[in-house]
Amino acid sequence: MTNNHDHVTALDEVVVGLFSTAALLGFYGLITYSGQGSWRYFLAGGVCAATSHAISTPIDVVKTRKQVDPELMDASIAKATMKIIRSEGMRSLLAGLGPTAVGYLMEGALKFGIYEVSKPAFRRMLTSLAAVTRVAALDSQLLGLVLCGSISGVAASSMLCPMEAVRIRVVAEPEFAPRGWIQASYRMLKYEGVSALWKGMLPMIYKQVPYTIAKNVSFDLFTTLGYSILLRRGGIITTSAKTAIPLASAFLASILSCISSQPGDMLLSLINAHEGTKTTNEFAKDILKSKSGIRGFFVGIEARFLHVFSVVTIQLLLYDFAKRFCGIAATGTM
């Protein structure tokens, strides 16, 4: 390992402290000034994201290892899993569970919270723009949802990026921090500086923004369509319908979100897997120049389909249930 430092510098400590303080103040400000009861969106989003990603950690480990380990890239999901277990034991499939749970607790709170509370603001803004510019196309519900998904995806990326950097390092280099993710965080700060925790910010945005748009927006639209078809046919919204329609919608959303975010996920895994100053664009060019070409961006997509399907389906069902439990109408019924 090539050291850039031999200790955690004062500057690194200040940056981490400032980021942590800003994050806490940001959460407080968002929840305080987003309107009465808005905390329910942040709570439901954080809980459902942390739970769904924690449950699927073993699949995520296999997916990440297939992306960064040349010996596993061409192996099937089953063969890659068995090879990891034989060489490193069953516990290796839970590598990165800590940063996954913590990272997605914050990421989910911001992603769902900002997405939901910003809907009225973007709707008013687009309606005003359409009136001023006389461009009727601007007064679009779909465009408003896409903008909400974009801004919430960027905000969520800033929260998730440090924890995802630690998770990927722990998974890709098991020997890097044998005592767990807290040791890995400290070693990354000590030897590589605070920039190591955010060097994946660009590919994180490439991954999270299309992922958030595809997942949140399509879930909104599919559930709305499902309930409207049910009502047009003379049906009523029963408890069973509130399970079946979100389940089908979540399944479709998982497919769209997986495909749209796969290239960003591949770049994120590569840039965070090891030390170095290689940029996102350099990794992207290497993939395009390889024998796989553009298909190289979709290495590990089979494992990721399984991962994203389980994550998104569980997450959106939990989110919809948590919203209703907190007194908010089911997604698509308003």
Order of helix and strand elements from N to C terminus: HHHHHHHHHHHH
- The number of helical runs is 12
Count the E strands. Answer: 0
Percent strand equals under 5%
Secondary-structure-derived class? mainly alpha
Radius of gyration: 21 Å
Contiguous runs where pLDDT drops below 50 for at least 5 residues: none
Mean pLDDT comes to 89
Net shape: globular
N-C termini distance: 55 Å
Percent of residues in helices comes to over 70%
Largest sheet: none
Give an overview of the whole structure.
By secondary structure, the chain is an all-alpha fold. Helices cover 73% and strands 0% of the residues. It contains 12 helices and no strands. α6 (119-133) crosses α7 (141-172). The radius of gyration is 21 Å and the shape is globular. It starts with 9 loop residues before the first helix and ends in a 9-residue tail after the last helix.
Keywords, separated by commas or semicolons:
single chain; 334 residues; mainly alpha; 0% strand
Topology diagram in text:
Layout: H1 10-33, H2 39-55, H3 57-68, H4 77-88, H5 97-117, H6 119-133, H7 141-172, H8 181-192, H9 201-232, H10 241-273, H11 280-289, H12 301-325
